[in-house]
Amino acid sequence: MPALPPQPLSPLDGRYRAQVAGLTDHLSEAGLNRARVEVEVEWLIVLTDRALFGTSPLSEEGKARLRALYLDFGQAEIDWLADKEAVTRHDVKAVEYLVRDRLTELGLDGIAELTHFACTSEDVNSASYALTVRRAVLEVWLPRLEQVIATLRELAEQHRDAPMLARTHGQPATPTTMGKELAVFAWRLERVAAQVRGTDFLAKFSGATGTWSAHVAAEPDVDWPELSRAFIEGLGIGFNPLTTQIESHDWQVELYDRIRHAGGILHNLATDIWTYISLAYFTQIPVAGATGSSTMPHKINPIRFENAEANLEISGGLLATLAGTLVTSRLQRDLTDSTTQRNIGVALGHSLLALDNLQRGLGEISLAQPVLDADLEANQEVLAEAIQTVVRAEIAAGRSQISDPYALLKDLTRGRRVGADDMAAFVKGLDIGDAARERLLALTPRTYTGLASQLVDLRHDES
């Protein structure tokens, strides 16, 4: 069989490219190399600003021309680096050679020897990954999560007073409202989103084994730890002063575990919405021209939630692998992290794809309140909890002589369907005060929702 023309192997780069394209600017190989050039250039500027080793500070025009190396990074640089790495067999060294080459073009040969000065590859890499992951998470992934949270909040407000039968263990239980149940997911996601937003994206810049040895040998009178701190923090990321050759990746482990946690909550959301659709609590809004089944014309399948569910499982598995691998490095350095970190974009890509499907899916459902009402009407026995609790209060207040209200209601309702008239007759015969009896007679499954509507107003930052 003849070979196909070149094709993307990953569906993220093929079928789903449009949904995850925002991540490629940061977490692709080209995005990583652009960040590496940024780190190399900014380190050159810092060294010359300090007039180290006989250099002079660059003019503002000179700095702008130098910064254009990463600000205008494009296909020419991508191709140049690919050709050079084929020779060097070392990605960061290829970046160093690119910067040196461009310095010659800019007439800045005089500072060429300060390119990659006293750096190990991991100084550049740790800063580059901190930059790219920070930008990808805060500028692309987190806004998409916050969009889903906002949609959940809107739906929660819309359905705050929509009573429905709860199902604990899959069985009829004390009623709630659809708005309150959706607000629970928003609440949970808000908490994790705040943790992600507070991530300390760290880098090291302390040389081959984290000791600044080469730096001190070249110029012992410079406070290299403080200069490195100022440089890294000047890039907008945090500084880790105590490391081996690599930055220890603990911040990445924490971040990926938090994103995986968010994915677990989103997975729970997807399966719950899928179940509500299967119960006909939500109807799916037909999309013009769409096909649900290749053979059953009537079907509208909950594919958005199923797609989200599957992609969250893939993302969660990859994120768990990232966290499990990156936490360990043998002695002062091994390369297990190198190939592992190249999959950060894949892990976030599947999560982003899931968020896209959830956002679209939540916009394509409509609450079927008559179905919820019929379900409530058919399950009058859920009022048993309210009745036995009121009876207990009446006993405590000295207004009832009933000995075991729980057993009384259990005998009436367990494993049985009890109609509204039967429930009313039972309440009328109870040994309780008139006010309590009137409250119970007025209660229906539709109105037995407690504070569900008010709970929709809770926000995590107000807790």
From TrEMBL:
The keyword tRNA processing does not apply. Transmembrane segments: none annotated. Pfam families: ASL_C, Lyase_1. Residues 80-308 form the Fumarate lyase N-terminal domain. Pathway: Purine metabolism; AMP biosynthesis via de novo pathway; AMP from IMP: step 2/2; Purine metabolism; IMP biosynthesis via de novo pathway; 5-amino-1-(5-phospho-D-ribosyl)imidazole-4-carboxamide from 5-amino-1-(5-phospho-D-ribosyl)imidazole-4-carboxylate: step 2/2. One of its GO terms (molecular function) is N6-(1,2-dicarboxyethyl)AMP AMP-lyase (fumarate-forming) activity. InterPro entries: Fumarase/histidase_N, Fumarate_lyase_CS, Fumarate_lyase_fam, Fumarate_lyase_N, L-Aspartase-like, PurB_bact, PurB_C. SUPFAM superfamilies: L-aspartase-like. Keywords: Lyase, Purine biosynthesis. The keyword S-adenosyl-L-methionine does not apply. Its EC number is 4.3.2.2. Catalyzes two reactions in de novo purine nucleotide biosynthesis. Catalyzes the breakdown of 5-aminoimidazole- (N-succinylocarboxamide) ribotide (SAICAR or 2-[5-amino-1-(5-phospho-beta-D-ribosyl)imidazole-4-carboxamido]succinate) to 5-aminoimidazole-4-carboxamide ribotide (AICAR or 5-amino-1-(5-phospho-beta-D-ribosyl)imidazole-4-carboxamide) and fumarate, and of adenylosuccinate (ADS or N(6)-(1,2-dicarboxyethyl)-AMP) to adenosine monophosphate (AMP) and fumarate. This is Adenylosuccinate lyase. The gene is purB.
